[in-house]
Amino acid sequence: xxxxxxxxxxxxxxxRQCLFSDxxxxxxxxxIPDPTLALQFIQKTPRDQALQACTDMSEHEVNxxxxxxxxxxxxxxxxxxxxxxxxxxxxxxxxFRKKVEKDEGYMNSILGLxxxxxxxxxxxxxxxxxxxxxxxxxxxxxxxxxxYAKTINIFRDxxxxxxxxxxxxxxxxxxRKLAAAYSCLEFQKTSKDMSLDSYIWDIENPNCPxxxxxxxxxxxxxxxxxxxxxxxxxxGYNGQIALWDTRRGSxxxxxxxxxxxxxxxxxxxxxxxxxxxxxxxxxxxxxxxxWWDVRRLSEPTERLVLDxxxxxxxxxxxxxxxxEFEPTMPTKFMVGTExxxxxxxxxKAKTPSEKIVCVYEGHHGPVxxxxxxxxxxxxxxxxxxxxxxxxxxxIKESAIMWTKYQMSxxxxxxxxxxxxxxxxxxKMDGMLDVWDILFKQNEPTLSLKDNGRLVACGSQQGGTxxxxxxxxxxxxQKNEKxxxxxxxxxxxxxxxxxxxxxxxxxxxxxxxxxxxxxxGAELExxxxxxxxxxxxxxxxxxxxREKEVCEEKEVEEESPTSD
Length: 563
Hints:
By secondary structure, the protein is an alpha+beta fold.
């Protein structure tokens, strides 16, 4: 049997407040102290301490002086050079230094300053101001951010009939402006309503071009003069060269004559590093490289026919569709051709046959892009067919590195001006691929769809996209130059070893084929002799058999017949 206790309470007392009342103190427990426990404790000196339930707060006022800012700038230029010496020209500066070093006044000044320099050097040697006190501490590597890029602006062709952006050129002073060449390169796709204009854009204003350039033929390429930011040189679809001065309006200042110009579209123009800053050269698919002085565009100053046989025959000339020139190598330049060959040339050669130095074979289609690495000029980048390839001047038989074959045709490429291991490629499907070969070689580090630190890409639909690349892809990394140099050196040695091995295998195969050919000739001669002997023995046996048959018939005819 279960015992149940039921507690009842009036409903009116539910939620009723508690009522407290006073009562006298009542002793509940009295614990007597244990003297033995006192021996386990140490008596503390009594002290007083104040306690407060709330935090202490104070109030005060501070008035600082107003900060005044001022914007100012300064231009740093290399001084001390005469007016007739261009400090950007390496040959001129070296020649001037050699001339000064032979001057007696220079030698006396150096000897007079030697004692002062010696005193300063001894002071520096007394105290090591470059001593590293924390070199034993390990550097904490920050986790690199994932590569990314964001679209800044898109500059669209303002005309109704959209054309392809065939050339882009940054303004030489800070990249505040962007010159874009527009034309239609598809054969017989041009209509009479299609505009011929090209434009100069301000990167802060994508709505309207800052200036229009009005050529007589659509421009295929356009280049700013690095020494004069007001002049531009453009190559037309009809092969002419046109010069613009932005201070004198949209019409060209001077145009080359049709008779002395290229016969095909001008695909590339490059300004030369000269004293006057008025020299340039151009390349076209007509098989010619022409040098110009923009002060007189009536005719070129020099011509080169890209005939691989070095005979200057225009019928056998290779069509040029890309061009490369490195100012630190003023005598060398390279040409990418429609036939997939890269031709290395020497401008200062005495005869036209000596101007073509060597030929690199590596692409199945036209070489649309060709550029030397700005940090390692011996290595250059090419784009043709479905791959991008990195070459070394020491290896002429094959490239030292290359990308895998892409699903879409590659149309252009360029090296990063700040990171030696980064280059950019664009494809026909509208993708921009960013490659960091120190990070990975099989796949691009970053791929962007139709979209320094600013990158401009022109599309077939006439849009120019301005992108901002993340700092990881636009900032020089630690030991990057040394690591890339080691990679290029390693790949060059590997290609040399492979080429030597292939050459040895070809020699062995050739000697083996010659030996087998000799043995075959001996066997053939032996077989022929055996056949002759057999035929001769058969002939004589047949003749002897016929003789015997004839003799038997004669004997039968002479014998008398019996009656």
